[in-house]
Structures are given as structure tokens and as C-alpha cells.
Amino acid sequence: MDIPQNAHVLVMDGGKLLLFKNDGSEAQPALNIVMHLVQDSAATRDQGTERPGRAHESAGTRRSSHEQTDFHQLDEIRFAVEAAEMLKREVLAHHIDSFIVIAAPRTLGELRKHFHTEVERRVIGEISKDVARRPTDEIMAAIAAS
Fold first, then answer.
1. 3-class secondary structure, 53
2. What would the DSSP string read from start to end of 117-145?
3. CA distance 137 to 146
4. What is the tens place of the pLDDT at every residue in 1-46?
5. Which pLDDT score is estimated for 50?
6. d(CA 144, CA 4)
7. What is the pTM of this model?
8. What CA–CA distance (Å, rounded) separates 67 from 61?
9. Across 102-123, average pLDDT
10. Which domains does the chain show, CATH number per domain?
11. Is the dihedral of CA 23, 29, 30, 31 positive or negative?
């Protein structure tokens, strides 16, 4: 996949976001970081204090328990929603004309749910891969391999 000149590349997972801009040419891209965000999210075991709740049937003696809330997963979803909102602001302000999204599979799915229609129109490529914590040359290799 080629990266057009002045196109952006969004690389993210559930806790890290990198936004690059190609200041080079399509033949020789030069990705420079425009934005770098990291979300600190404690593990679910550190966020929950109570055991999961229990339910009693109104008739009979059956009991069941509720599933414990995955607070870490909720933080990752919230981070993806915030990223989609940031992209909406940047696209509507005409700061981003086109971009490629590289995200961990679950994060990519969450992003897609929350993309504004104008943001969707600017997406020129998607790669479902978790490379947000990799060096830039490995990110470039992931793009080249797609």
C-alpha cells in the first residue's frame, strides 16, 4: 500500500495512539509524528473492588452470578471513541484530507463503529494489525506488506 504525500497514518491499539503525516513523497514516504497519546489504564483486578453480584430466582432455589465488569476493556473502548472524535474534529477542520488506519483488530472494529461519515470518506486504507508499540520502520513494513 502506498502512502500519498501529505496523507496521515493513524496507528493505535487500546492504549496508544500515534498519528503520522507523510512529509515525503509517495515513492519515498517520510512519516513524522503529529500526535502521540497514551492512555493509562489499570488492570480490571485493580479497578474492581467487589465480587460480581448474585441473582436469586423468584421461584425455586436457583442462583446465578453476574459477569464481572471488564474495566480495562471499557477503557479501551472509551479510548477508541475519543480517537474517532479527534479524527472527526481534524477532518472537519480540514487538517486531514486522507489517512490510513492501522489498528489492533478489536480497536479497529471499535473505531469503525464511531467514525463520522466524513471521516469514513477520508480512509484510503485499513490494516488490522497491532503495531502501535513497534518502531516506525516496522510500521512502514506493515504498510508496505499490505
1. coil
2. HHHHHHEEEEEE---TTS-HHHHHHHHHH
3. 14
4. 899 999 999 999 999 999 999 999 999 999 999 999 998 765 555 5
5. 56
6. 13
7. 0.80
8. 20
9. 96
10. 8-41+69-145 (3.30.420.60)
11. positive
